[in-house]
Amino acid sequence: MKYTNEEILVACNKMCPNTLMETLEIEFTEVGADYLIARMPVTPKVHQPDGVLHGGASVALAESIGSAGAFVFLNSEEIVIRGIEIAANHVKSVRDGYVYAHASILHKGRTTQLWQIKITNDDGALVSMVKLTTLTLPKK
């Protein structure tokens, strides 16, 4: 069954209540043929003690969007998706506004997938570059 981009975004945002995604106020905003975009507000809730975005919050955003991307772009009705490895390079600080995560799949294997997630600020400058590996398992 083919879903519209709007239906996909609604489904992704419906996964957020009562999860870390709700706590971090992550919102899925755009989906394309091979990418998914989400945003997260940068407020004191996600700051380090010195008032800048915590790298762990960026990684949580990246894993959330990469896992959602696997849900969207793989046959999620037949599989269970798990993140198995994540690596992040943080290159710019952010104090406020939003950060935007753009997830695209680099490798779409039968059991493992490799995702690239670019996190940018309101001006489009790179904040973090993240690599996520997901594992798909058959539902039992």
Automatic annotation (TrEMBL):
The Gene Ontology terms for molecular function here are:
1,4-dihydroxy-2-naphthoyl-CoA thioesterase activity
Look up the signal peptide feature and give its range.
Answer: none
In what residue span(s) does the Thioesterase domain sit? 51-127
Task: Say if the entry is tagged with keyword Hydrolase.
Answer: yes
Q: Which UniProt keywords apply?
A: Hydrolase
Query: What Pfam families has UniProt attached to this entry?
Result: 4HBT
Which residue spans traverse the membrane? none
InterPro entries (alphabetical): HotDog_dom_sf, PAAI_dom, Thioestr_dom
Q: Which family does it belong to?
A: Belongs to the thioesterase PaaI family.
PANTHER family according to UniProt: 1,4-DIHYDROXY-2-NAPHTHOYL-COA THIOESTERASE 1 (PTHR43240:SF5)
Q: What is this protein called?
A: PaaI family thioesterase
The species this protein was found in: Aequorivita lipolytica
